[in-house]
Amino acid sequence: MSCAHPSEPSSEDAARRELLEETGLTVGELHPLWSGPRPYEAGFPHAVTVHVFCGTTKARQEDVVLGEGRAMVFVPRDELLDRELAVSSALVLSLHLKST
Predict the structure, then answer these.
(1) Of 9, 7, 17, 5, which Cα lies nearest the Cα of 53?
(2) What is the arithmetic mean of pLDDT over 59-64?
(3) Confidence at 1, pLDDT banded by 50, 70, 90
(4) How far apart are CA 70 and CA 78, in angstroms?
């Protein structure tokens, strides 16, 4: 999840920056996937609006550089929802899988 800086003109700019900071990856075209209030999750009681984008990359697992966040791994599509996910991630991945 990204937090926009005042210097960023759009949530897409914030998403690109966060992707680079968290993984060392860049992406070409981004498409809005979902925007809405962050689902309630214990430890995150504040209300924020989440903007989620979808994009493609030719990156491989060895291209990922762990930045500020947790480890990221590429997993097969049919294993996505079997993983332990944050509430927001589970919501967004389910929406994405239904749309593709």
Answers:
(1) 17
(2) 87
(3) very low
(4) 22
Neighbour count for residue 3 (Cβ, 10 Å): 9
Question: If you count them, how many residues does the chain have?
Answer: 100
Residues forming a β-bridge with 49: 37
- The residue among 81, 85, 55, 82 whose CA lies nearest residue 72 is 85
DSSP alpha helix (H) spans, 1-100: 11-23, 87-99
> Measuring CA to CA, how many Å separate 87 from each of 17, 39, 44, 58, 63?
23, 7, 11, 27, 27
- Is the model's pLDDT at 8 over the cut of 90? no
Contact (Cβ atoms closer than 8 angstroms) between residue 40 and residue 91: no
When pLDDT is averaged across residues 4-23 and rounded to a whole number, the result is: 83
Write out the two tokens for 70: 């947790």
E runs forming strands in the chain: 30-37, 49-55
12 has pLDDT over 80: yes
